[in-house]
Amino acid sequence: MVMKEEFGIKPQVEHFTCMVDLFGRSGRLDDIKDFISKNKISNVASVWRSFLSSCRIHRNIEMAKWVSDKLFELEPPTAGSYILLSNTCASGDKWDDVAQVRGLMKDMGLMKHPGQSWIQLKNQVHSFVMGDRSHPEEAAIYSYLNELIQRLKEIGYSTEANIVMQDVEEEQKELLLAFHSEKLAIAYALMKTSTGSPIRIMKNLRVCTDCHSFMKCTSLLLEREIVVRDLRRFHHFKHGHCSCGDYW
Fold first, then answer.
1. Is position 175 within any domain?
2. What is the dihedral of CA 161, 29, 98, 162, to 10 degrees?
3. Which of 115, 82, 101 is closest to 207 using CA atoms?
4. Separation of alpha carbons 97 and 111, rounded Å
5. What is the chain's percent helix, strand, coil content, to nearest 5?
6. Above 80 in pLDDT, residue 170?
7. Owning domain of residue 217
8. Could you identify which of 63, 89, 101, 177 might form a hypothetical disulfide with 94, taking C-beta atoms 3.0 to 4.6 angstroms apart as the criterion?
9. What is the pLDDT of residue 173?
């Protein structure tokens, strides 16, 4: 390997995982398989987790199943990995596969933590969960969010209903996505902060693709910088783009 031959650096797990991530970004999933085999790193769980994320991004269901099997041979199954697999199956409308994955999670007692987002305004922390109606200003928040979604649709935003892991009608899918915790947090922040000021949000889970698109469009429409720290990384939305390059 060039790193070792030219620079005297022995590749570590982080280097291998980074290469898998780079192959994944360009959609070269078969090259990831070859890279893992060539470098004899099939026993490194983090490599397979990165590979599984790439399968989700590129909606390669069969590859995702194979990768998840490899991952579960190396470490105890986690809710996060199963949800990644389930999301990948849902993106291809493979509802029988989604039900099977969810059934396995239930049998093993693996529970998905509810999504929760936090925002601090004037030294007070406001917490939101999906469909939350407990906030004192919930009526105004939902009204503002509904209006914002309609405005965003006028500039090209469309709900990514394919990520909903339920076989329901399209309109119902839109409703399930409309009130995710980070959308509620953003709506409240927009209501309570001055025009042009940045918005900062924390979330306990990975941001879904629909909320990601929502925040890109919001940053463009309202000319706001939005910074979200989710389970995986920071997302910095500005002028309709995200610092992650739509890969996370």
1. yes
2. 10
3. 115
4. 18
5. 55, 10, 35
6. no
7. 116-242
8. 89
9. 52
